[in-house]
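Much of our argument rests on the idea that a fold can be written as discrete symbols. Part of our work consisted of pairing the sequence of a single chain with a tokenised description of its backbone. The amino acid sequence and the backbone structure tokens for this protein are reproduced below.
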Amino acid sequence: MYSFKATQPTLNNELHSTLESCRAGLRYLLARRGPLALSVNQFGGFARADPKSPRPDVQLYFNPVDLRRGRCHAHSDRCRRISGILPVFPAHAPDQRGPHRYRERGLRRPPDIAPNYLSTEKDVSDVVHADA
């Protein structure tokens, strides 16, 4: 995972302390505005990481928060105090699809889902190419 220092304020500036996080939460509850009303993925796109791929094989998106050394939503960790961004580039079209099924007792119980991440050589290769 990569993170970069930003020259402009990011969500780190608004969520790095308990007081600021509470203020953002209250603002969202009262007005549905502020940093918690945003999608964490502000912009992105699709790219071909492997030149041999016939179509885009990774999705790129950028988060206006640096989570490299902490998580904003956890009580025990805090966002870093510096402004930062976090680029993310997962494989876009994995080969392996895991099974998913509903359990017998209706829709109130969560489904069984086994995503089987990185279980094929192509999926591993796509991630390696994206990281290169």
Summary: DSSP finds three helices and six strands in the chain.
